[in-house]
């Protein structure tokens, strides 16, 4: 059972380039989340989804877009990457809201130069 | 909106010592999570607390949610080098379902 899989694991982008991070879960979870983790800042929620076709903004949504066209996939897009988006990105999913464990992927380390 | 404050920010303890990490919220906590993260890796689920006064244990780690459901503590007994890492608490951020937020984490180092 793969759980939550993030693709890619590492990426270096030039300022202004675009890219999409893919999060896939095979647990039939309704809820999915994208976080960024920076030193001293903990995990900050970027966007989340409560089901297929739905998305919502978290704490730090600016500069990112998301889509949840299929229940198992949650995509995070950077349209025009900036150095401030250099971070480690984590995806997570959960079956229920506030009553079940959230499972995390292994992270994507993104560097924008 | 909800904010989670963790204390201390970092902690260095001698192997074998006990320690406590706290997570305090400005609002009532529903579904408080504790996770552990090793450097460069993903988050490992430790336990989840929902009811006021609830206490759960896993090996040498015990977590408790206070009666008012605004503070949780994580206690490690007889710490070992394997306990080293970053501990994060997470909870409902308020506003709408799905707003799962985390504290800034507590970095634990255990000296052999």
Largest sheet of chain A: 7 strands, mixed
Question: In one word, what is the shape of chain A?
Answer: globular
- Percent helix range of chain B: under 10%
Class by alpha and beta content of chain B: mainly beta
State the helical fraction of chain A. Answer: under 10%
Largest sheet of chain B: 6 strands, mixed
Oligomer description: heterodimer
In N-to-C order, the SSE pattern of chain B is EEEEEEEEEEE
Overall pLDDT score of chain A: 94
Short description:
With about 110 residues, chain A is mainly β.
Task: Describe the model.
The complex is a heterodimer of chains A (113) and B (112). By secondary structure, chain A is mostly beta strands. Chain A is built from no helices and eleven strands. In chain A, strands 2, 4, 5, 6, 9, 10 and 11 form a seven-stranded mixed sheet that branches. Chain A is globular and about 40 Å long. In chain A, 36% of the residues are buried. With 112 residues, chain B is an all-beta fold. In chain B, 0% of the residues lie in helices and 54% in strands. Chain B has strands at residues 4-7, 10-14, 19-25, 32-37, 43-49, 55-58, 61-65, 71-76, 85-92, 100-102, 106-111. The termini of chain B are far apart. The interface between A and B is medium-sized, with 29 and 27 residues.
Short descriptors:
heterodimer; A: about 110 residues; mainly beta; seven-stranded mixed beta sheet; four-stranded antiparallel beta sheet; 11 strands; about 0% helix; B: about 110 residues; six-stranded mixed beta sheet; globular
Q: Any chance you could write out the topology, listing elements then pairs?
A:
The complex is a heterodimer of chains A (113) and B (112).
Chain A (H helix, E strand, L loop, with lengths): L3 E4 L2 E4 L5 E7 L5 E8 L3 E8 L6 E2 L7 E3 L5 E6 L8 E8 L7 E3 L3 E5 L1
Parallel strand pairs in A: 2-11
Antiparallel strand pairs in A: 1-3, 3-8, 4-5, 4-9, 5-6, 7-8, 9-10, 9-11
Chain B lengths: L3 E4 L2 E5 L4 E7 L6 E6 L5 E7 L5 E4 L2 E5 L5 E6 L8 E8 L7 E3 L3 E6 L1
Parallel strand pairs in B: 2-11
Antiparallel strand pairs in B: 1-3, 3-8, 4-5, 4-9, 6-7, 7-8, 9-10, 9-11
């Amino acid at each position: 059972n793969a759980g939550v899989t993030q693709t890619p694991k590492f990426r270096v982008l030039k300022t202004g380039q675009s890219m999409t991070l893919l999060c896939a879960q095979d647990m039939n979870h309704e809820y999915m989340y994208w976080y960024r983790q920076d030193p001293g800042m903990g995990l900050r929620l970027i966007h989340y989804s409560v089901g297929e076709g739905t998305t919502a903004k978290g704490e730090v949504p600016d500069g990112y877009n998301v889509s949840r066209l299929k229940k198992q996939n949650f995509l995070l897009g950077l349209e025009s990457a900036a150095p401030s988006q250099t971070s480690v990105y984590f995806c997570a999913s959960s079956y229920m809201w506030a009553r079940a464990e959230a499972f995390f992927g292994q992270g994507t380390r993104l560097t924008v130069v | 909106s909800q904010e989670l404050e963790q204390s201390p920010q970092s902690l260095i303890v001698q192997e074998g010592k006990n320690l406590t990490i706290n997570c305090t919220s400005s609002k009532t906590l529903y579904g408080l999570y504790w996770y552990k993260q090793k450097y460069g890796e993903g988050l490992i689920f430790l336990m989840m607390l929902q009811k006021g006064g609830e206490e759960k244990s896993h090996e040498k780690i015990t977590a408790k949610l206070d009666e008012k459901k605004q503070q949780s503590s994580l206690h490690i007994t007889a710490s070992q080098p394997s306990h080293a890492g970053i501990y994060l608490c997470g909870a409902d951020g308020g506003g709408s379902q799905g707003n799962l937020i985390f504290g800034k984490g507590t970095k634990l180092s255990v000296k052999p």
